[in-house]
Design a protein that fits this description.
With 385 residues, the protein is α+β, with helices and mostly antiparallel strands. The protein has 3 domains: 107 residues, Acyl-CoA dehydrogenase/oxidase, N-terminal domain (Butyryl-Coa Dehydrogenase, subunit A, domain 1); 101 residues, Butyryl-CoA Dehydrogenase, subunit A, domain 2, CATH 2.40.110; 148 residues, Up-down Bundle (Butyryl-CoA Dehydrogenase, subunit A, domain 3), CATH 1.20.140.10. The strands form 3 sheets. It has a 4-stranded mixed sheet with strand order 1-4-5-8, covered by helices on one side. A hairpin with a 2-residue loop joins β2 and β3. α1 crosses α5 and α10 runs antiparallel to α12. It starts with 6 loop residues before the first helix and ends in a 6-residue tail after the last helix. The mean pLDDT is 97. Bound molecules: flavin-adenine dinucleotide.
Length: 385
């Protein structure tokens, strides 16, 4: 984290920044063009030990490191490549780390932590997205001594590149999570996403016969374990957005100094300078709110509603802020190949949908909204009859 960051955090950030620049940034242009997620990025970051460092410590791992990595993925403007790395080492690895008990599950977890396997999470179906409790068209049924997993998952990232997909499926006794290997999966469609083009989001047809060992969360445990994994993805989305905003704002405020119009730098125009100052202030607020929630999660004082509130608020702030930064570049801001602004703008939009939409987040906040009858009675007189 920045600001009052310790020397250790500062050193970790600087190392992550270098690793991202070395291993991930060079992969972005081709991934954006082909829409194929580059699995070698995960292999390289895993081989550097980054995922293991993030997942040291208690049940949440090291959240300070988690947020630094996600911010740096966002700050590097990696788009889908960064999101795919994040989905692997946050959502999927969180579930593997919490649930792996059998030799096969432990093998998958260890390979995920070292980046040798790419893992991801498949929950959404054609008719079920926001309400995961209703997942049902992907089924888990007894098949001799093992299980059959059958169904179509509508959006999976990076679906076509994954070695193992964690599939939320409906068994007779409730929702479960099955680990399905790539060879039992057919890519039905590579999705034409507006942004995050390097993420390789795909529609997958799953038809697998798996052993008991592949059921990483048994019937009844699927939903709580998916919910657990999504917590980390929400943090990663918020931290990634803060990182991307830092990139956009730094580029835009540098442009304000460099670009001259009417004989003076754009910075000399008060309307532009103050507008940018407002956006910088909003982003600083977002960053500190995020750090506060993370510190609270580690200390046990932040709630799921706090985390949901930070995710939805930052995801919604990010889009207009990037749009304003794009505006500072005038016509070039709208060009795909001359500034990164247009790509940042379309990439950030999905933060309002991924790992739970705005409305799903607000429902979590609403469920924790404070009610205090004593306070109410102190301040609000009874209505005259
Ligand atoms: C680029 C991309 C990558 C993705 N990657 C993955 C992935 O890796 N794995 C995966 O499983 N899924 C993935 N998804 C799917 C994503 O998680 C879902 O799209 C999301 O959860 C919303 O579900 P839905 O599309 O079915 O929308 P719906 O649930 O149909 O919702 C439509 C709209 O209605 C709102 N809404 C729904 N219910 C309510 C309600 N009760 N009250 C108020 N408003 C409501 C929603 O907020 C939304 O605005 C991805 C999606 C995208 C675009």
């Amino acid at each position: 984290m920045q600001g009052t960051a310790s020397a250790e955090t500062t050193a970790f950030r600087s190392r992550v920044r270098k690793l991202v620049a070395t291993h991930l940034t060079p992969l972005v242009p081709e991934a954006e063009q082909t829409r194929i997620f580059p699995r070698e990025g995960i292999a390289a970051m895993g081989a550097e030990g980054l995922f293991r460092e993030r997942w040291t410590g208690g049940p949440y791992g090291d959240l300070g490191r988690s947020v630094v990595i996600s911010e740096e993925l966002g700050r590097a403007g990696l788009g889908g490549v960064g999101a795919g790395v994040s989905l692997h080492f946050e959502a999927a690895t969180a579930i593997l780390r919490r649930c792996a008990r059998t030799p096969y599950a432990i093998e998958v977890r260890e390979n995920a932590l070292d980046g040798r396997y790419v893992c991801c999470l498949a929950t959404t179906e054609q008719h079920v997205g926001s309400n995961l409790a209703e997942v049902g068209s992907t089924t888990l049924t007894r098949d001799g001594s093992g299980w059959r997993v059958r169904g179509i998952k509508w959006f999976v990232s990076p679906g076509a590149a994954a070695d193992v997909v964690l599939v939320l499926c409906r068994a007779e006794d409730g929702l479960a999570i099955a680990m399905v290997p790539q060879e039992d999966i057919t890519v039905v469609k590579r999705l034409e996403t507006t942004g995050m083009r390097g993420l390789g989001t795909a529609r997958l047809d799953i038809d697998a016969h798996v052993s008991d060992e592949a059921i990483i969360a048994g019937p009844g445990l699927g939903l709580p374990m998916v919910t657990f994994g999504l917590l980390f993805e929400r943090l990663a989305i918020a931290a990634g957005a803060v990182g991307s905003l830092e990139l956009a704002l730094t580029l835009a405020s540098t442009h304000l100094r460099r670009r001259k119009q009417h004989g003076v730098a754009l910075f000399e125009h008060q309307a532009l300078r103050l507008r940018m100052a407002d956006l910088v202030s909003q982003t600083a607020l977002a960053r500190h709110a995020l750090y506060g929630v993370i510190a609270g999660l580690s200390a046990g004082s932040s709630s799921l509603g706090d985390l949901a509130g930070v995710k939805v608020t930052i995801a919604r702030m990010a889009e207009p802020i990037v749009s304003e930064c794009m505006h500072i570049f005038g016509g070039r801001g709208y060009l795909e190949d001359e500034t990164p602004m247009a790509r940042l703008w379309r990439d950030l939009r999905v933060g309002r949908v991924g790992a739970g939409t705005d409305e799903v987040m607000w429902e979590l906040v609403a469920s924790e909204m404070p009610v205090d009858d004593d306070l109410y009675d102190t301040w609000i007189p009874e209505e005259p009859s």
